[in-house]
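Fold this complex.
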Amino acid sequence: DSGVTQTPKHLITATGQRVTLRCSPRSGDLSVYWYQQSLDQGLQFLIQYYNGEERAKGNILERFSAQQFPDLHSELNLSSLELGDSALYFCASSVIAGSTDTQYFGPGTRLTVL
Amino acid sequence: GQQVMQIPQYQHVQEGEDFTTYCNSSTTLSNIQWYKQRPGGHPVFLIQLVKSGEVKKQKRLTFQFGEAKKNSSLHITATQTTDVGTYFCAGPYSGAGSYQLTFGKGTKLSVIP
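Structure:
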């Protein structure tokens, strides 16, 4: 158990809908990262938050947004969903956001768009 | 931007055979990290290498960091079925005053009993 929690574990929805994925980082970790993993694909970095502020954006679509709240939990919002958005979405956390920080991954949310 | 390439993409080995995955970065890295993702699981941190030419061992796993700090390898001796999974290398890169990890696409290891 990494100490990072994600809900829900599974999500099935229809095209055009909007969903929210939730992540709670490990106790004491200030930095949260979101990744997308499609079938047999690597980990695509989406966005990073540090202590409530957005720090970096990766390959995140405009239909996707995220935020980190004062209690440090984070939410990833996916809207106008398309079939191609079906994937595993991982949240990871680290103590700060230093170059030697280890990232601890949550169990992921499997999103299926029908 | 920084790119991290990993080969091979897939590797099937007979139980007891050795396995090696290679990682190459387009830029010099301050360190490199390795993660393992079991089937149906999430990535789990294995190790971090920091020094040029560094070699670290974890039981049957040997990790190396190249002299130029642009490449790395993971070698597993005498694979077991418990080694099945995808192995990712990752290097840090700086953006907006903090660091993110660029992951390679991973090497998926299958072990035939």
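The two ends of chain B are 41 Å apart (CA to CA).
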